[in-house]
Fold this sequence. Notes:
The complex is a heterodimer. Chain A is mainly β.
Amino acid sequence: GAVVSQHPSRVICKSGTSVKIECRSLDFQATTMFWYRQFPKQSLMLMATSNEGSKATYEQGVEKDKFLINHASLTLSTLTVTSAHPEDSSFYICSARDARHVLPDQPQHFGDGTRLSIL
Amino acid sequence: DAKTTQPPSMDCAEGRAANLPCNHSTISGNEYVYWYRQIHSQGPQYIIHGLKNNETNEMASLIITEDRKSSTLILPHATLRDTAVYYCIVRVGGAGNNRKLIWGLGTSLAVNP
C-alpha cells in the first residue's frame, strides 16, 4: 500500500529555533499533501494544504509566515516551524493522496507524525 | 461536509467482533463515508470507505444503512493491537485533490484480554 514517511519522528529544541519537518511519499507521487497538528487528547486540525509547484493554502488562524511550507517535488513537502516557542509544541502529521488515481474518493495516507517539543 | 457523531469510547473483548457506530444524518448524496484509526502517538491509518454499498476489505467491513444516515465499522475478530481511536468522516468526492477531511474526536476503542 501507499507509504508516507515523515522525518524526524521526534524533535526537542530550544525556544527560538526553527525546525524543519519532511514528508515524503515513498512509492507514489503526490501533487497534494496536507499538514495537520494535534494537541494531546484532541483531534487532528488541518493547518494547510500543500500543492506541488505552487503556494500552500493555509487554514484560517494559521500563520503562513510562522509555518513555512515548501512542496518542491511530487514526493516531498516540508513544514518549517520558524522561531518556535513552547506553545508550538505539538504532534505534527502529514498526509498525501496518490496523484495517479483519478477516482474522486481515494483516501489520504498519513505519515507517522513528528512530536515537537520546544523547551 | 456533513458532521458525524460517534460514541466517545467503547470496550470489546479480544477475539470478539467490534461494532463501531457512526451517525451522519446530514450526509449528502455525493459524500463518502471514510474510516480511519489512530493508534497512540502514530499517524492515522486508513481502514475503509464507502458511498452506498456495504464494503469489506482485509481489515474491516463497513455497513451503511439504506438511508445512509448512519454506518457501522465492524472489526470481525478484534485483537489487542486494534486498540485505537477510530474516526468516521464524511467527505465529498468529485474533482480536485484538495478536499479536506474534517476530524471529530472519534471513538476510543479498548480491546481487553
